[in-house]
Each structure stands twice: as structure tokens, then as C-alpha cells.
Amino acid sequence: VVKRAVASQPDIPEAAERAEKFRQKYRHKLQTLRHQPFAYGSLTVRSLLDTREHCLDEFNFPDPYSKIKERENDIALKYYQKAVKSLEELSWEDRQFALVRGVLAGNVFDWGAKAVSEVLESNPEFGFEEAKRRLEERPWLIDSFDRWLERLKGPPHRCALFFVDNSGVDIILGVMPFVRELLSRGTEVVLASNSGPALNDVTNSELQILTERIAVMDPVIESALREDSLTLIQSGSSSPCLDLSRLDKVLAMVVRERQTDLVIIEGMGRAIHTNYYAMLSCESLKMAVIKNSWLADRLGGKLFSVVFKYEVPAGKPH
């Protein structure tokens, strides 16, 4: 993170000095927590990640990953039309699987995970197809895909709320084609992204620009934006994790007004570190690729294991 912070401000000579102060402050906080785990309230993965973002802000590194995000977005946009075209050539059933696999492969592109950032550092051309090859084969560690496929044969959902994760390949080649399919089924989609930066997560202001750029290439997205069946709203969070009890008020209102009946949560921070056991009152999909070995061990999997958890609340027909 220190290296990224310095690289994000190449024209500012004292950036290295501030980055070093950030390192010392964050390490000091970690040392304190090692001796007094509850010094700053409850100790969770989320509180550790949030503390890091606060320290970065304090030393004036509001978005250390901005340059990386720009570069990865530009690269991914070049492949968007090709990706959509190859999906359209598949049979309906094959396409549903390819769409899910696309979201999962996109989610591999995460600078917050050491195993991945090392690959991305050593091979900046690390591609979408290579990411697909890294994914474990089915049956996945948590695998409800067959139930999800059965559900898709039924009536379309009214409205899907999708909590998105990373910039670049994740949002552009993974999430957008999946969203496009939901829209084509007649489901309204609300994309909820971070209000402020954290790691390489896409922010709401970045997503607005990206979606406009995609709309120019894709009539499905263009008409969905025009007719308001695709809406982009900030989540109220500036964290790689997701606290569903602290959502932006506008988002909460829209979710209620549109009678949302499907919630999709993507990524390790939002779908596993937080909300893995959260029971929602409507159907939910939690999708993530496990990118650190501690978490893989804990869940009984390995690096690049897949979590695809589709849940229907008790009392509702499956």
C-alpha cells in the first residue's frame, strides 16, 4: 500500500515522506491492537481495513490506487464488445454459467489480496482468460449454481440490488455483462458502489463515467440508463467491507420503492469477511473468489476457491 501511495503522487516530492509516516502510524496501531485487541472498539477484518483507509486519508493519500484503476479501466473497456459478443453466441444455459464465471474471474483482479497483487505486479498483462483458468473447477467450495439456474428458468426478478467490488476487469467484463442479462430479462438493476475510495474498489463517481462509456458501445445499457431501469447509487461506504446497517439513505429508499427481490453481494470483503452469514429477507447471491490462504483454511478451501451462495429466505418458494 505504501508503494502504491507513493506511485499515485509521482509529481509530489514529499509523498515518500508522508507514505513513511502512514506506514509508521498504521503499524503502531497494529502493535497496539496486538496487545489490546479492543483498544479501538471491536476488532474485525472490517475495523482493520477501515483503520488503514483512515490513516491513508490522514496523510493525504485519498486514493492511492487511482492510476491503477484508470489504466485497468481503459484496458478492460477495449475488450467489452468482444466479451459481450462471445456471450451472445452461447446457448441460454451455457451463457448463464459463463456470466457467473465471468463475475468470479473478474473478482480475481483485486489489489487488496497479496496473492493477486504479486501476480499483477509481475504480469501487468494478466488477462481475463488467465483469471478464468485460475478458478477452481466445479463443484466449487460453496456451490449453489444449479439452484440459481433453476430459479432463472422462472419469472424474472422485479429489481436486483448489486453491491459491486473492483474497478477494471471486475466491473467492466465481469459485472456489466451479468447486469446486462438481468436487464434483458426485464429486471431493474440498482448498482451500489462505494461513496469514497478504498483499494481498487470502484467508486460511484467512477462508475457513472464508466457506465456512460459502456453505453456508447452497448444499446442495452444505453436504453436501460435512459429508461431508468439501470440506476447507479452510492452505498454510503468507503470501505472494502460492507455494513448493511449503515447504507446511504437514498439507496435505502430506492431499494424499498422498487420492491427489490434480489440482493447480489460480490467480493471477499463484502460477501465473506462481512455478510457471509447475513440472512436477507429476499433472495440473495453472494459471489467471491477466496484470495488469501488464512480465509481459505478457515472455510476449508484453497487459494482461488469459489464461493457461490444462493439463498432463498425461509418460507418463500425455492
Explain the overall architecture.
The chain has 318 residues and is α/β, with parallel strands linked by helices. The chain is 51% helix and 11% strand. The protein contains 14 helices and 7 strands. It is globular. The chain starts with a helix and ends in a 7-residue tail after the last strand. The mean pLDDT is 94.
Q: How is this structure best summarized?
A:
51% of the residues lie in helices and 11% in strands. It has 14 helices and 7 strands.
Number of continuous helical runs: 14
How far the N terminus sits from the C terminus, by CA atoms, comes to: 44 Å
Strand order of the largest sheet: 1-7-6-5-2-3-4
Overall strand count:
7
Largest sheet: 7 strands, mixed
Given the C-alpha coordinates, what overall shape results? globular
Give the overall pLDDT as a whole number: 94
Radius of gyration over all CA atoms, rounded: 19 Å
Strand proportion: 5-15%
Task: Give the uncertain stretches in residue-range form.
Answer: none
Helix content: 40-55%
GO molecular function, one term: pantothenate kinase activity
Cofactor: Mn(2+); Ni(2+)
Protein name: 4'-phosphopantetheine phosphatase
InterPro entries: ARMT-1-like_metal-bd_sf, ARMT1-like_metal-bd, At2g17340_3_helix_bundle, Type_II_PanK
What key attributes describe this structure?
seven-stranded mixed β-sheet, kinase, 4'-phosphopantetheine phosphatase, globular, At2g17340_3_helix_bundle, Type_II_PanK, 318 residues, 14 helices, alpha/beta
List the helices and strands and how they pair.
Layout: H1 2-7, H2 15-35, H3 45-58, H4 66-88, H5 92-106, H6 114-122, H7 128-134, E1 142-143, H8 145-152, E2 159-163, H9 169-184, E3 188-193, H10 204-217, H11 219-226, E4 230-234, H12 249-257, E5 262-266, H13 268-273, E6 283-289, H14 293-299, E7 306-311
Parallel strand pairs: 1-7, 2-3, 2-5, 3-4, 5-6
Antiparallel strand pairs: 6-7
